Amino acid sequence: MSDIDLDEIDRALAERTPGDWRVDTVRTPAGHLAVSAWNADEVPCVVCDTHGHCSSAADAHLIAHAPEWLRVLVARVRELEADVADAKRDERERIVALLRGEAATCDRVAQSLGATDACREIDELRGAATCALQFANELERT
């Protein structure tokens, strides 16, 4: 699915014909439907009508309800995006804490080995500690 610009949807909703949109049956010989925006004075402004052959009552219903449905969906998407961002931040913080703990453990073990014949193991532990700290720092920046 492609990214949807929620700000663009907000702008379009703010710039739409104001009022309560609803489907009205217009009394013409053809008896077509119209989606009207009714303002506070109950004066309708026709948003679209079904003069064309491709329009139907279902289309009129969808168009009439689109502003409110879009408002609700945009709010829900933003709420879910915030939840995901919070969960990612919490998980990053947990991983950083684990990496820092592992780095400290590696460093303590390397120090306890001291200047023995285990130089290679000490270097590997210090390398692992350095790598864990670098990864932790990188995670904190994201």
Task: Give an account of the 3D structure.
Helices cover 63% and strands 13% of the residues. The chain has 142 residues and is an alpha+beta fold. The protein has one domain (6-141). Helix 1 packs antiparallel against helix 2. The protein is rod-shaped and about 90 Å long. The two termini are 24 Å apart.
List the helices and strands and how they pair.
Blueprint: H1 6-15, E1 20-25, E2 33-38, E3 44-49, H2 57-113, H3 119-141
Antiparallel strand pairs: 1-2, 2-3
Note the gap between the termini.
24 Å
Helix-and-strand structural type? alpha+beta
The description of the largest β-sheet is: 3 strands, antiparallel
How many independent structural domains? 1
Overall residue-averaged pLDDT value: 76
| Radius of gyration, in angstroms, nearest whole number | 31 Å
Helical stretch tally: 3
Helical content, roughly?
A: 55-70%
Strand order of the largest sheet: 1-2-3
Strand content: 5-15%
Low-confidence stretches: none
What is the H/E string? HEEEHH
DSSP E strands, number: 3
Shape: rod-shaped
Structural descriptors:
single chain; 142 residues; alpha+beta; 3 strands; rod-shaped
In short:
The protein is α+β, with helices and mostly antiparallel strands and 142 residues long. It has one domain (6-141).
